[in-house]
Amino acid sequence: MTETKMVINLALFGRTQSGKSSAGNILLGSADFHSRLSPCSVTNECSLGRSCHFRSFMHRGGREVTLQVRVLDTPGYPHTKLSTKQVQQELKKALGRHFGQEGLHLALLVQRADVPFCGQDASGPVQLIQELLGHSWKNYTAVLFTHAEKMEEAGLSENEYLREASDALLRLLRSTQQRYVFQYKQANSFSEQRTRILERIVDFIKENHYKALTFK
To answer: H/E element holding 115?
Structure first.
């Protein structure tokens, strides 16, 4: 069977200490991005990571597809060291440099499942995505819930969690056409979790007809 290669381009957005860099490492299957517990923002500039090739990841048009993932890690927003303008400038520059021609397939808004989605700190990253991606941001955004194991520890299923979610979060999910995925911190199933999340992300991109958003 003939094999083809597909590259998907992703960018991570979210608040400081939301788990962006850790999520990026799971998506890549590596430790490209520096991630640690800190009382302040850890990521100060954008960084692009590339995964290895995931062979026979899926079938498309009767052909086996080898998948490669490119992930842009970004500074948290709001940031403890950088101003709003500095973060915006860094992101615009990085999106143009890395995805200017090939385009961005999906922006992942990283949100901790154990932190309520409310207030200006929560809406800030959403507004940032809207400014950077323009009027079509809803078609190119999904929510990635990190620390979902905390939800399990509280005895909540994913459906129960969403039923109890804030109105602000439910509005966001409606805007992004219910594109979301949960990430659980389970070291013994790292590879399985990466595959599960990537399959969901590829489904989102497929629903969008594999279109990508370019930046000038």
So the answer is: none
User: Looking at 51-60, 175-184, 186-195, which range is the least confident one?
Assistant: 186-195
* Exposure b/e, 37-50, CB count within 10 A at least 16 = b: eeeebbbeebbbbe
| Predicted model pTM | 0.93
Query: Are 172 and 126 in contact, with CB atoms under 8 Å apart?
Result: yes
- Residue 33, judged by CB atoms within 10 A of its CB (0-12, 13-18, 19+), counts as buried
Of the candidates 5, 13, 10, 2, the one whose C-alpha atom is nearest the C-alpha of residue 28 is: 10
What is the per-residue pLDDT for 139? Answer: 96
Assess whether pLDDT exceeds 60 at residue 186. yes
Token look-up 């999106």 returns: 95
Helix (H, G, I), strand (E, B) or coil at 82: coil
Output the 3-class SS for 93-109: HHHHHHHCCCCECEEEE
What's the Cα-to-Cα distance from 168 to each of 83, 141, 161, 175, rounded to whole Å? 25, 16, 14, 11
Cβ neighbours, 10 Å, residue 188: 7
